[in-house]
Write a structure and sequence with these properties.
Two copies of one chain form a homodimer. By secondary structure, chain A is mostly helical. The first copy, chain A, has a domain of about 60 residues: Winged helix-like DNA-binding domain superfamily/Winged helix DNA-binding domain (Arc Repressor Mutant, subunit A, Orthogonal Bundle), CATH 1.10.10. Chain A contains six helices and three strands. In chain A, strands 1-3-2 form a three-stranded antiparallel sheet. In chain A, strand 2 and strand 3 form a beta hairpin. Chains A and B meet through helix 1, helix 2, helix 3, strand 1 and helix 4 of A and helix 1, helix 2, helix 3, strand 1 and helix 4 of B. Chain B binds a DNA duplex (30 and 30 nucleotides) through helix 5.
DNA sequence: TGAACATATGAACGATTGTTCATATGATGG
DNA sequence: CCATCATATGAACAATCGTTCATATGTTCA
């Protein structure tokens, strides 16, 4: 998005180009919403985080169990949990020394299962 | 995913840990499916590609019009279209000098609108 | 209070990503 | 065939990302 906006006709086809620009400006969600949307999908775009979410589909789990279940270091899991929490996909509850994580809401399930459908074709 | 798997009890809580490992191995999709899933979401995790898809929600559009509508260089758009096409999210149709792109199927719409719902809260 | 355990976090590193620039490929019309 | 337009692509670069390592914070129990 470096280039300045210039309403130049493209492809020498003024009659296609003009209504297109109108459609785009009418239908495109605002810039910050598009950014947030991309940001959300970016979270799902890592298989460690996906695996964490799949475990949380089944149960509320502490960091240490997540690490051992997914066979990764506590640190790596903790870093990823922070990202998931910041994006409101996951919530944390402390119980003594341990912190238990669970899904923040059910959108996550829906989004991921839609993705799975596409992948499984 | 560097660490070797060792079935060590975690958090000194054998009674929690054991069934968890079972759940994980029973419910977790196979490794390659999780990878594909993450790979799919990675595609949506860029606002340029999201914007391209939003335009394609409305119409079949040639590269050059996409570039001017989204105010980006033809090269940048073309690179991104290649990624979208490789992931089967978009298909291409040549008509003379121009190449028109459109959505490959309707999963894309569903996935993105699910994402939007989450973001708009 | 101090040792032991669970979790969080900052810095550093290699790996991946998106854009730009230059150029190649492909199609059309003269 | 050649010039021109539309698109594709490879190399290069800065920016971002995920993991590791070392260490800090927070909690429990003796």
């Amino acid at each position: 998005m470096k280039q300045d906006f210039t309403p130049i006709e493209c492809c020498d086809q003024v009659e296609i180009h003009e209504p297109l620009l109108k459609i785009v400006s009418d239908q495109l969600p605002p810039e910050d919403e598009l950014y947030d949307l991309a940001e959300l999908f970016k979270i799902f775009g890592d298989s460690t985080r996906i695996r964490i979410l799949f475990v949380l589909f089944e149960a509320e789990v502490c960091v240490c169990d997540l690490a051992s279940a997914l066979n990764m270091t506590q640190s790596a899991i903790s870093h990823q949990l922070r990202i998931l929490k910041q994006s409101q996909l996951v919530k944390a509850r402390r119980e003594g020394k341990q912190v238990f994580y669970s899904l923040a809401d059910d959108h996550v399930r829906t989004i991921i299962s839609q993705g799975l459908e596409h992948v499984e074709e």
